[in-house]
Structures are given as structure tokens and as C-alpha cells.
Amino acid sequence: MPKRSDQRRRRNKVDIDSAPVAVASGVVRGPECPEDFGGLAKQWYESLRTSGQSEFYADSDWTSALIIARAIERFEERPSAHMLTAILSGFGSLAATEGDRRRLRIELERDVASDEDEDAAVLAIDEYQRRVSG
Q: CA 19 to CA 41: how far, in whole Å?
């Protein structure tokens, strides 16, 4: 599996090497989860709706996601190795795992929430250093 772009070192870096980036902002995308979904199928589908890569999904991708969620439901009722293989393959086609996204050179960056207390502490330290050195 390829490394994340911030872990790669290249001497001959080219612009094409940069990965498209989606911010996992928690924005809900895609069609509503069908009411008859439950268990892992519902959990997986809902997590897909708020994932960063869903920014790139077209209608056909959402239809694929619904088909995979139905397969997850059937797998929960009657597990089989064949069904698991099909589900994991479906995950790959939707870039639903970190490894799949790396192979496609898509990286998700998480929004870093700002901590007001931490920001205030940093400002206080900066102010103190400026007074001491000046």
C-alpha cells in the first residue's frame, strides 16, 4: 500500500504526484438511508454519507453503496466467505477504506477543532517571550 504523501520522500517530485484532498467535515451527502436498513448495513451506509470521499460520489456510486449495504444485511443473516469477498470488493470500488484511498491517491484531512484555552495559552506564552526578550 502506498504511503501517505507527507510520509513520502521524492527527489524527482512532479506535480502529478500530489493527491486530491477531501476534507472530512461531517457534511452529510447522498440519499437518505432506507428505513428498513438496520445493524451494520445502516451504520456503514450512514458513515459513508459523512465521509470525506463521498464528496466525489456520483449517483451511480450511491446506488452501489445501497447494493453493498443490502449485501451486508444478507451477510449478517447468513455469513459466507463468498459474500464477505463481494462486500470487501465493493468497499474498494467506493474507496471506503484507508488502503483503498491510498491506492487511488486520495487523502482525507480531518478538520482540526480549535481549542480556545490552548490558543489563549499560546498567545500568553508568545507575549511573555516577547517581553522577556525585548
A: 30
